[in-house]
Amino acid sequence: MIPPLNDISFSQRSELAATLAKFKREAWGVGLFSMVSNLLMLAPSLYMLQIYDRVLVSQSELTLLALSAITLFFFASIAFAEWARSRLLVRVGMRLGELLNQRVFAASFEARLKRSGSAASGAFADLNNIRQFLTASGAFAFFDAPWTPIYLAVLFLLHPLLGAISLLGVIGLGILAWQNDRLTQQPTQLALEAQAQAGYYLHNKLRNAEVVEAMGMAEGLRQRLLGRHQNYLDLNGKAQDQATRIKSLTKFVRYSLQSLVLGAGALLVIDGSLSAGAMVAASLLMGRAVAPVEQLIGTWRAFVSARAAFGRLESLLAAYPERAFNIFHGAPRGQLHLQDVLATVPGRAQPVLQDISLDIAAGEVVAIVGPSGSGKSSLLRVVLGVWPDVTGQVLLDGEPVGAWPRSELGPCIGYLPQDVQLFEGNVAENIARFGEVDSPQVIRAAQLAGVHEMVLRFPRGYNTLIGQGGSHLSGGMRQRIALARALYGEPNLVVLDEPNANLDDAGEQALSDAIQALKAQGKTILLVTHRKHILGISDRVLMMNDGQIQWYGKRQEMPPEPRYHGVLRPVVG
User: How does pLDDT run across 443-455, given as a tens digit for each residue?
Assistant: First the structure.
């Protein structure tokens, strides 16, 4: 349940609850307007009471006019109070988004980086769910519910029998609300999880639509998706059936109560214990007393959904708190030291990397070779500090790579992954990493990557839109623009994972020239490659096999043929 803002001590608050607690003033404002609205809701009952007991008896048109004018003023005040508290809650929702958008993005990004994709993908949907609940009518039920005892007290003042009937009715509706929660909570939660899994499954398959279509995989994947979707429909139908039954029973109880109070009032009027005006007023008061309870039952599904979203978002923010960084001044030189590094993947018994110890001096070019699956790409991610589960030391210029703030370290690193990903925008924006476009630096990076002349042949040059994921470009062009992005700003540490996988002869020559130019500037370069001629421009070679270092040393001392099945003694330093 979303915790009350005033009932949580600061030491007990989660980050999300503490953020909500910043809106105490707005909550008091909504409570104040709710008090005005609910107090003035007594006006219709009092109006009826005066009409029947005073106006009809006195036949005074002036009294009727005065009572009607006062009641209209009360109704206008109610409308203003309802508008004001709605506006306050809308402002709370907007402000909550402003406070949490950046934080939720950072946490979901880090969760995605650490392969918690399902948690990350729904983070903003959960935030929007909470915001929508706060700004919808369902939230008003929680502010109106405390006024139910006031209406019951007025009913007891009119006559104890009317108060007792209304009290029993409210208790009955409360029991129905509790039953609604107990019976629908689990199926609703299971339905929401099934819906999220089906959506996540569909999203991943649509990302690879070309592969699915080309190899005729659509039917098999469609059957699996339909199975997941049918599971969601079954669970959702079960939850809705239960909620509908209770909602129908709630309406039956409410209508019966209103008629019962009216009938009991008529009996009291016949007995002379109650006036006709009080009889009608009691019926209206009973309706107001049970309205918040009925509203709670009607919006319970939205409340359960918001509560589940709150729990997921709270867990996400707790699992990925804001990082506290030491502030470093100046760019790193690129000196790397790895000691006893072990990298693992959840659910896999064998480590991806183990017993990795090596030193790379600033300004060295290290070529990393080895068979597929030997851990080359994983080693690069460990060096960059983006591998989720790592033990041991990974130091950059003597400091743990994870201790560097990315806002400071990122511009000093160039990274070209094996799976090239560009982003929707133009060529210049992609090369400039979607920061402020420095045109001379963009052109310099493109020239280093050997792509400048090709970009100039585009219809709009560097302003050419490349489409989602670079879909308007060929594979080789995407790789060369990604290489230019890695070289943008002349970073001191450049990490390239098979940068020549999609390059033609001209592209490979441009890559070789770029590496030599960076080497001449004293940049540290880590290069994964399967092409032997690239080894000629490296200072050292690192051979890997089965997640371990097979050999590491100067290029001139490299064994003539890598012995992948007979592990050589590592040479460190």
Answer: 999 988 888 988 9
